[in-house]
Design goal:
The chain is an alpha/beta fold. Helices cover 35% and strands 15% of the residues. It has a ten-stranded mixed β-sheet. Strand 1, helix 1 and strand 2 form a beta-alpha-beta unit.
C-alpha cells in the first residue's frame, strides 16, 4: 500500500532567536516586541488536532518544527520525544549555533529526518544579513548533522542584494554534498524593503538561468545534492525551454501543482494563531478557539482557495501548475491574487 501523502505543518513553537536577520518576517520593522513560547499543554493539543485533520483528509502530518530557533524552547526535547513516540514525521528549521554532535545524534535517535539551515550568500553577504560568524558556524553545523545521519537542507532567500552570488552558493552546496538546496524570493515587509530588495521580471529570469546552468552542471556529474526548484516561476522557465509540458489529459481550471497555500499546508505560531501562509498576513484563527480541522474548512481558509481570483494567472495556460508566489504578490500590493511582480510572461 502506498504511503499517504503528507500535509505540512510549519510549527513555530517559540519566537526566541539568536539572530535578527534583515529579511526576517518575524522581526520585520521591529514588530516583535517580545518572545512568545507555546506552552506544553497547547503543544500536545496541536499534535492531536493535526492528527485529526489529517485523518479527515486521508493524509499524514509532517511537522516542520521551527521558531525563532526551536531548540531554545525549554520543551523542545519533550516535543521531539512525543513526536517520535507517536510515529510522526518531523524535521527542524533552525539556527546552527546550538548544534553539536551530541545534540544532532539525539535528534536523529528521536526521528528527526531533516534539519534546514540558511545560507543567504557567501560569507560576507550571509553574515551581513544575519550576524558575524554565522556563515562559519553554519558550515560547522552541516558537518555535525551529516555525522549524525540527518538530512541537511540549505535554504537561500534571494533578492537583488545577493542574487549575483547564487551560482557560487550552488557550487558550495554541491561541494558540501548537502542533501537539499533550494531558494525562494524575499517577501517584502514594507515599501522601503520592497525597493531595496526588488528585482525586475527579466532580471529574475536571468537569475534563474544562471542558477540553472550550475544545477545542470552538477547534476550531469552525479552530484548528490537534490536541487529543489522551490519557486513556482521555475515552471514558467522550464515550460519555455520545453523541459516541462502540460499533460494531454489535464483538465482546464484544475490545480495540479504550485503554491500549497490553503490546500496542503498550515502554519501555527507560538501564540496559537494559525496562518494559511507565514510569509504573508493570512491569519485564519487560533487553536485555542477552534480546531485545525475547523479552521482548514473555514470561510477564512476558503478565501485563500479562490483560484479564479488570480488576476493574471487565471487566464494563463500554466494556471494549474504555477500561479507564482501569492506571498510575494501580497508583499508588493497587499493582494495575494495580484500578478506576481517577478513574472515575465506576456510582458509585451
Amino acid at each position: 500500500m502506498a504511503p499517504k501523502p503528507a500535509f505540512a505543518f510549519q510549527w513555530h513553537i517559540t519566537d526566541e532567536c539568536d539572530q535578527r536577520c534583515k529579511h526576517c518576517y518575524i522581526f520585520a520593522n521591529g514588530d516583535c516586541a517580545g518572545f512568545t513560547r507555546m506552552p506544553w499543554s497547547q503543544m500536545k493539543e496541536v499534535i492531536d488536532q493535526a492528527e485529526e485533520l489529517c485523518e479527515k483528509l486521508t493524509r499524514q502530518p509532517y511537522f516542520y518544527v521551527t521558531g525563532g530557533d526551536p531548540i531554545l524552547h525549554p520543551d523542545f526535547w519533550r516535543l521531539a520525544e512525543l513526536l517520535h513516540e507517536r510515529g510522526f514525521m518531523w524535521c527542524v528549521m533552525g539556527n546552527p549555533f546550538h548544534l553539536d554532535d551530541e545534540t544532532c545524534h539525539r535528534m536523529k535517535e528521536l526521528g528527526c529526518r531533516k534539519y534546514q539551515l540558511s545560507l543567504d550568500g557567501l560569507e560576507a553577504t550571509h553574515d551581513y544579513f544575519r550576524k558575524p560568524g554565522s556563515f562559519a558556524d553554519t558550515l560547522r553545523a552541516i558537518e555535525c548533522l551529516k555525522r549524525a545521519g540527518i538530512w541537511v537542507a540549505i535554504m537561500n532567500t534571494v533578492s537583488s542584494t545577493n542574487a549575483h552570488e547564487l551560482p557560487k552558493l550552488i557550487d558550495l552546496a554541491a561541494s558540501l554534498e548537502v542533501d537539499v538546496f533550494a531558494f525562494g524570493r524575499y517577501c517584502p515587509t514594507s515599501g522601503q524593503a520592497r525597493d531595496e530588495f526588488h528585482m525586475e521580471p527579466l532580471e529574475y529570469r536571468n537569475v534563474l538561468l544562471a542558477a540553472q546552468e550550475r544545477i545542470d552542471y552538477h547534476q550531469s556529474r552525479g552530484c548528490k545534492t537534490f536541487f529543489q526548484l522551490k519557486d513556482h516561476l521555475w515552471t514558467l522557465l522550464l515550460w519555455e525551454q520545453g523541459r516541462f509540458t502540460i499533460p494531454k489529459d489535464a483538465k482546464p481550471g484544475m490545480i495540479y501543482d504550485g503554491c500549497h497555500c490553503g490546500t496542503g499546508h498550515m502554519t501555527v505560531l507560538p501564540t496559537g494563531n494559525v496562518y494559511a501562509c507565514r510569509r504573508m498576513e493570512s491569519r485564519i484563527g487560533n487553536v485555542a478557539e477552534s480546531t485545525l480541522e475547523s479552521l482548514f474548512f473555514s470561510p477564512a481558509m476558503e478565501a485563500k482557495r479562490e483560484f479564479k481570483k488570480f488576476k493574471k494567472c487565471s487566464t494563463c495556460e500554466l494556471f494549474g501548475w504555477c500561479r507564482g508566489c501569492p506571498a510575494v504578490s501580497f508583499g508588493y500590493t497587499g493582494d495575494m491574487y495580484d500578478a506576481d511582480p517577478q513574472c515575465w510572461k506576456d510582458l509585451g
